[in-house]
Task: structure prediction
Amino acid sequence: QVQLVESGGGLVQAGGSLRLSCAASERTFSRYTMGWFRQVPGEEREFVAAIRSSGGTTRYSDSVKGRFTISRDNTKNTAYLQMNSLKSEDSAVYYCAAGYGIILSSMARRDSYDHWGQGTQVTVSS
Result:
């Protein structure tokens, strides 16, 4: 069972930056596709970004493309989400997720991921 722990959330002003981290317990972390999703109360959890196991392929939602960057360090079993030029609409609970054997066309699907963290709150003040 992969355990994921997010950190790095907090309160930031619009236009600012935050970096989220997702630490995984699994030694085979490098085999998993890692994703970031976010959720606002009353709404569905939405895709933000994902990165394949080798780190060579990434995907982003249109709403964050050009502002957010997903990366991973397989030597540290950690995935990251660098968030720049934050907007008030980026405020949400951010979750990291891990999935094995996810095909490219399914990287943005919630049901592709088997393991989820508890989430970290990001609040952007305008």
Summary: The CA atoms of residues 14 and 126 lie 5 Å apart. The chain is about 0% helix and 50% strand. The longest strand covers residues 92-100. The two ends are 39 Å apart (CA to CA).
